[in-house]
Automatic annotation (TrEMBL):
InterPro entries per UniProt: AAA+_ATPase (IPR003593), ABC_transporter-like_ATP-bd (IPR003439), ABC_transporter-like_CS (IPR017871), DrrA1/2-like_C (IPR025302), P-loop_NTPase (IPR027417)
Protein name (database record): ATP-binding cassette domain-containing protein
Family: Belongs to the ABC transporter superfamily.
MF GO annotations: ATP binding; ATP hydrolysis activity
Domain ABC transporter: 5-232
Gene3D superfamilies recorded: P-loop containing nucleotide triphosphate hydrolases (3.40.50.300)
Keywords: ATP-binding, Nucleotide-binding, Transport
Length: 298
């Protein structure tokens, strides 16, 4: 049975520097949670506290209703940003050791290692030293290390860094599969297109504080709906002053309108058609990247 991962009011200081200030969020069973922010924002600090590598000055980390202790940390699959596998140790030997360290029998550890190296496309490198692998394959081996003991929670720090497109697809599929099994998955990434595509909810952190938290669509909707209209003569500035239109960007034959919640699209369409034929009339939400820039610059 899986439980939510609860981060409750974490605070961490280094002298006068506030690394985390009341960091609070929950990752539900079966949810993929994207944890994003600029370098130094506090993402890795939060993850290290979850794992017990760092101690918080205040706050709690719980799995369900229980504070996470040493035994419960064995249920967490962790992928650090600074890769932690021994470069002069063989891939398979190291993965089997880590699986047994987390409580698996020798037979189960061997079976899991064989399954995961095959799943992640590095089965032919199982007897190679980690340091002899390409950076992308070292990344795959590191993910195998996070998965080999069948964790009930996944905490991954920049798991997509340095991966080629094929490896990104493999890793994305694995995260979706684990979430489908009910595992809470939290990962940090600077690749916001992946975050937007994969995550159910996203938290944006800056200067140690959570500044935006919600579903991907909710967060993207904070910036207003964009309406792309092609056709009307933009030299007439046809959309200026229309009710519900917050802003207009005219680019050649294209007009990009930012709308508020009360905008009447039929009224806007009629205004567009009064200035010429309309070839495109489509709404879209802003990209998560736009919201990220807005939040971190605020």
């Amino acid at each position: 049975m899986t439980h939510p991962l609860i981060i409750d009011g974490l605070t961490k200081r280094y002298g006068d520097l506030v690394a985390l200030a009341d960091m609070t969020f929950t990752v539900h069973p079966g949810e993929i949670f994207g944890f994003v922010g600029s370098n130094g924002a506090g993402k890795s600090t939060t993850m290290r506290i979850i794992l017990g590598v760092l101690a918080a000055d205040s706050g709690r980390v719980l799995l369900g209703d229980r504070p996470i202790d040493l035994e419960m940390r064995r249920q967490i699959g962790y992928m650090p940003e600074e890769r932690g596998l021994y470069p002069k140790m063989k891939v398979g030997e190291q993965l089997r050791f880590l699986a047994e360290l987390h409580g698996l029998s020798t037979a189960d550890a061997r079976d899991n290692v064989e399954r995961w190296v095959a799943r992640l496309g590095i089965a032919e490198r199982i007897d190679d030293n980690v340091g002899d692998l390409s950076l992308g394959n070292q990344q795959r081996a590191q993910l195998a290390a996070a998965l080999v003991h069948e964790p009930s929670v996944l905490v991954l720090d920049e798991p997509f860094s340095g991966l080629d497109p094929v490896a990104v697809d493999v890793m994305s599929d694995v995260l979706k599969e684990k979430a489908a099994e009910g595992v809470p998955v939290v990962f940090s990434s600077h690749q916001l297109d992946l975050v937007q595509r994969l995550c159910d909810r996203v938290g944006i952190i800056t200067k140690g504080s959570m500044r935006a938290l919600g579903t991907v669509d909710d967060l993207r909707g904070r910036g207003g709906v964009t309406l792309h209209v092609t056709g009307p003569d933009t030299s007439t500035r046809w959309a200026d002053g229309l009710p519900g239109v917050i802003d207009v960007d005219y680019r050649g034959a294209d007009s990009f309108l930012t709308l508020d919640a009360g905008a009447d699209d039929q009224q806007i369409l009629a205004a567009a058609m009064s200035r010429g034929p309309v070839h495109r009339f489509a709404t879209s939400l802003p990209h998560l990247t736009d919201l990220f820039r807005e939040v971190v610059s605020a």
